[in-house]
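Example with several molecule types.
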Amino acid sequence: MANEILEDQIGGEYKYGFVTDIEADNAPKGLNEDIIRFISKKKNEPEWMLEYRLKAFRYWLTLEEPRWAHVSYTKPNFQDIIYYSAPKPKVQLNSLDEVDPELLKTFEKLGISIEEQKRLSGVESRIAVDIVMDSVSVKTTFKETLSEKGIIFCSFGEAVQEHPELIKKYMGSVVPYTDNFYAALNSAVFTDGSFCYIPKGVRCPMELSTYFRINASGTGQFERTLIIADEGGYVSYLEGCTAPMRDENQLHAAVVEIVTHKNAEVKYSTVQNWYPGDKEGKGGIFNFVTKRGICLEDNSKISWTQVETGSAVTWKYPSVILKGDNSVGEFYSVAVTNNYQQADTGTKMMHLGKNTRSTIISKGISAGFSNNSYRGLVRIAKGASNARNFSQCDSLLMGDKCGAHTFPYIEIKDKSAVVEHEATTSKIGEDQLFYCKQRGIDNEKAIGLIVNGYCKEVLNKLPMEFAVEAQKLLAVSLEGSVG
Amino acid sequence: MLSIKNLHASIGGKEILKGIYLEVKAGEVHAIMGPNGSGKSTLSAVLAGREDYEVTEGSITFNGKNLLELSPEDRAREGIFLAFQYPIEIPGVSNVNFLKTALNEIRAYKGLEPMEAKDFLARLKEKQKLVELDGKLANRSVNEGFSGGEKKRNEIFQMAMLDPCLAILDETDSGLDIDALRIVAGGVNKLKSKDNATIVITHYQRLLDYIVPDVVHVLFNGKIVKSGPKELALELEEKGYDFIKEEVGA
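Resulting structure tokens for the full complex:
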């Protein structure tokens, strides 16, 4: 009976599956040095940037695609991807009136009303948004307001032009192009992304946010994000992702780097809702992302919070290198897989400094025929005295055709370390559902309640606006998927 | 209010209820007693709409509606409340949030707007007192880490909040010490009115010292074999269920 309900109702609808009809300026399909030169030229890049790309590309050619993750999929044909796609016409936009109305409609559908944000100016909870569509950043809001405080928040491409010294200093310092297959690919072909610099002693007065959108067909999205918080700086950064519904698998291979200096803090929150494919597992985004931060100096803190509901295949491990003494790394994650989605996600906490602390809270939810894996590494280096880690990895199963897996790795080289690991696996019980129903709450609402309760510790870490969105998203992603 | 006629129900092909007849009117308290395995909990589960049980014959009418056609949540919204023998834990969901959702779902079913926050809070406070429930419990996750007694008290608290038309208490006395029993029974008595009814399912006469029934039914082997005034409970307590077995020639 349980399975009848399951099969009957599986799958909420993906509401971001629209395609915006915007003329795009595309590169030809395929990948070679000429394409890289094309991208670099399109972006009017200095010679050093092109050199970096080419080095990364040549290195990438020597690599094999990684196969260790607990996922299975058809290897992307890297010669069948368009590596550069820009909504036309690409002109410098000064006001909204100059923006393609189709593009504005897209933003509206995504729930990002720039107009509204403008109106909200002067209100406390403002969010500055950078929107990256396909390959380029199309609009950054609140740039002027932020620059008064010395905060730089712009597209990555713009930062290459305007702040080359910062890019040269930090790009690749946390995730070098030699890091892994997809990081190397990204370093070769990345087209845009967001850049953020918080100067000494500045607390960013608003949430900074980037929305990534893959729109054009046959394209991959390869963006880079680089966030630097200088001494005593603080920023809370949000990232949202959506894509149209397409039968093909599209590739998203991003790199995110975070650097915190002394006493600085960066909080990075993601609500990842790339198109997950249809109920039969056709289409959807391959999400192969390298995210890493380094607490470069003492007393700094990096916190990753992610709610992962989308993508056909996810391969992502937001990590923290705890280099400075007393630095803190946190990872809070909710990963939901439904239908035929596969996720292999987790984190790495590398303790190098003394008295460093890390916390990992991972909540996996599997439904349908999906597979959901937590993979995490806690490494305490020699000399990282009094390092502490607490890990909690919970899995929730819905129905009996899905899988949950946990791969925790712990490497301790210092005797004074204290590492705790807790893991649980549970099933949404018929008993829990019946209990809710007996109180007048229907199946759908009951699942929402139970799942949100289960994820509470993580959802509490999200900024208010995001938490509400994430709660709704969880309910939609799992609609009717319980028996 | 409730009319059960010739109710047969089975689970996994095994017949548990073998022709139950029961009439409950507004303002009444009915006790259903019986030995282990007689079908008491099955009856409460079938009334609440638990899908594991298959009703093979008979009818249940509740306030003029065919109950068997309603989903479990709609039965709850129509005013049926089951106090669970083993209340379920829902980690991370606060009691308050749970009750607010339940209350507003029931209101929506009746075409009412969600309850104002301040009215809800006032009600919360008032009903907490009724079952002497610690305010902290209301903010904790539903039944998580509650003691056995706290869980049962929480059931009655929920019942008070949702104000049902027909409450079914499934072995609410099991696992309660005498003080908790007094509090729980006191709560039930205070909630009694001429418009609602209660079915108390129990093994022991003990609870019926506190919640005095109008009618006592003895359930045996899937049938109500004897009904009588409250004194029947005392007789059962004294003689054990064997005398019933002898009477029905089992």
